[in-house]
Amino acid sequence: MALDTLFVNGNIYTLDPSRPKAHAIGVHQGRIISLDDELPPSVFSEVKDLAGATVLPGFQDAHCHLTHIGQESMQVDIRPSAAPDKSALFNAIAQACQNAKPGEWVIGSGYNQNYLDGHHPTAVELDEVSFGHPVYLIHNSRHMGVANTKAFELSGFPERRGVPIPEGGDVPCENGQAVGLLLETARALIMDHIPPTTPETVATMVEEGSRALAALGVTTATDPGIGAPDHIGMCPQDLTGYQIARDSGRMSMRAIVMPYLTTLHPLAGLEYQGHPLYTLDLGLRTGLGDSWLRIGPTKVLSDGSLIGRSAAMREPYAHSDSTGLMQFSEEFLRERIIGAHLAGWDIAVHAIGDAALDSIMDIFEEAQSILPRPARHRIEHVSVADDKQIARLKQLGITPVPQGTFIPDLGEGASEAIGEDRASLVYRIGGFLRQDLQFAASTDAPVVSACPIRNIDAMVNRRTHLGREFNSEEKIMVEQAIRAYTLGSAWANHVSDRGVINNGQLADFVLLSEDIYQVPAAHITDIAVTSTFVDGKEVWNARW
Ligand SMILES: [Zn+2]
Ligand SMILES: [Zn+2]
Questions:
Q1: pLDDT(159) > 80
Q2: What's the gap in Å between 299 CA and the centre of ligand 2?
Q3: pLDDT-derived band of residue 143, with 50, 70 and 90 as boundaries?
Q4: How far apart are the CA of 229 and the centre of ligand 1, in A?
């Protein structure tokens, strides 16, 4: 019986300390079955020459909103980068409307009126390019939108007349007719009438999102929050959408999904020492699934963001009395996080501010004191932390999941929000490793780019978009960043079948244009992922 493929002549970094380098990988049925000359080429049905390319295990983005990435590619891209002026924007909408099925809504995303002569598009302007379709444009802030006349009509406001102005929102009008713009809560007047997302649509988002991620060298992404469209996720049947994509072979790479905490509920009065268990029906929990699609931790947001000054902080924001806020009451979080822990879930909590970090560590500590077990609980972002807090994370066995790319994209804004005197606590990474606390690498895409090379550059060089070094003592080495992107993420995802190139592991790996371990740090961003393999098959190649 012939085995599948032998990849030869590679500059292969295995990430296995007992055997760090190799020159050949044998693959059969999606798994690595040999390294170097362990098996002769004659037993393989195919031998592929890697021509000296540098090979790494595939990147695992431990916090990456895969369906949101897919959704972006299904909406009309009207960001200034794609539609730099009004005529480009209207051309893009016209083209999408002509290609849409009869009656289908056309959604554009990311416009910025500052690139459109300072004016938001109007309903009348959109009507001219809509071909009868309802059209809705989302502003890049996501706090505003513009609808055309058909969209108003389908929402119960023919000719854009009689539109109420809800509390917390606004609908600019002329002569009793809405001009098209909807602010804040008024957006719901239209958005509530856009047909709800179906599992089939989610499957298409997964297909598109996974294709985009495979092209960046990401071979596993963990989707942090599904199934709770009121909070995060696309629809209550998000997992069905993922399964449709998986069953029909439309996933280019692997996914681990995090059901949002509000989808868990007490089950049949089950309790432990007076604490209700929180879980899904049938007792479904972390770990179910296969190598393509797996249920990961349950996810919850505890606070907001630094830029929005809504993360929960120990000290007030700069020039302010505000210390931000928690998204849920302490009691709400405590009961559900402990209940999920007791029901066997790993738990991932978004905590950006240092006060949120304290609260969540308290709850995790209490959960482990009620029922000690080797859970892989994690805290997403950990964007503000001092050394004592990092020591406590280590002591509690909690994995931090920071985002390097926040440094270039959000670093300046974050340090402005928190104030220069406390900015040294922001976006730490080196501090985790100094206390021997392994972290997982992630991007939180599409908040920022999902590109692993950019993320590695950010973790190593720590320059903001202004070119300023940001907390340079938090820099890490290239090998530490790559370790986080492979083994660190595998640990946080509670999987052991990926992260190193070794016998028995999933055959997920990437080829790079240069040896990332040899390139000077200043030139990391010149490196390209040239090819991505998942399950031993090439799912993306730069030449395609
Ligand atoms: Zn988050
Ligand atoms: Zn996120």
A1: yes
A2: 10
A3: confident
A4: 15
Residue 129 has φ and ψ, to the nearest 5°, of -120, 15
DSSP per-residue letters across 420-464: GGGGGGBS--HHHHHTT-----B--TTSS---HHHHHHHHHH-B-
Whole-number Å distance, alpha carbon 191 to ligand 2 midpoint, is: 22
Task: Please give the distance, rounded to the nearest whole angstrom, from the Cα atom of residue 380 to the centre of ligand 2.
Answer: 8
State the distance from the centre of ligand 1 to the C-alpha of 382, rounded, in angstroms: 10
Residue 367 alpha carbon to ligand 1 centre in Å? 22
CA of 236 to the centre of ligand 1 (A): 20
- Domains in the chain, CATH or no CATH each: 3-59+503-541 (2.30.40.10), 68-191 (3.10.310.70), 199-492 (3.20.20.140)
How far is the C-alpha of 152 from the C-alpha of 540, rounded, in Å?
A: 42
- 289 CA from centroid of ligand 1 (Å): 24
Residues 153 and 210 sit within 8 Å (Cβ to Cβ): no
Would you give the DSSP letter of residue 236?
Answer: T
pLDDT tens string 192-233? 999 989 999 999 999 999 999 999 999 999 999 999 988 899
Question: Across all residues in the chain, what is the average pLDDT?
Answer: 96
Say which range, 112-116, 430-434, 532-536, has the weakest mean pLDDT: 112-116
Which tens digits make up the pLDDT trace of 383-434? Answer: 999 999 999 999 999 999 999 999 999 999 999 999 999 999 999 999 999 9
Nearest bound ligand to the CA of residue 69: 2
Q: Please report which ligand is nearest the Cα atom of 383.
A: 1
Residue 140 has a pLDDT of 84
- Coil vs helix vs strand at 357: helix
Ligand 1 centroid to 441 CA: how many Å? 14
Cα of 348 vs centre of ligand 1, distance in Å, is 10
CA–centroid distance, 443 to ligand 2, in Å, is 8
Residues 25/12, Cβ–Cβ less than 8 Å: yes
Q: How far is the CA of 71 from the centre of ligand 2 (A)?
A: 15
Tell me the pLDDT band of 281, cut-offs 50, 70 and 90.
very high
Instruction: Please enumerate in sequence order all residues whose Cβ is within 8 A of that of 517, keeping only pairs 6 or more positions apart, or say none.
Output: 13, 54, 478, 479
Ligand nearest to the CA of 62: 2
Which of 508, 500, 515 shows the shortest CA–CA distance to 532? Answer: 508
Structure tokens, 525: 């961003």
Q: 296-313: string of b/e by CB count within 10 Å (b at 16+)?
A: bbbbbbbbbbbbebbbbb
| Cα 520 to middle of ligand 2, angstroms | 31
Contacts of 93 (CB under 8 A, 6+ apart): 76, 78, 106, 108, 126, 129, 130, 135, 137
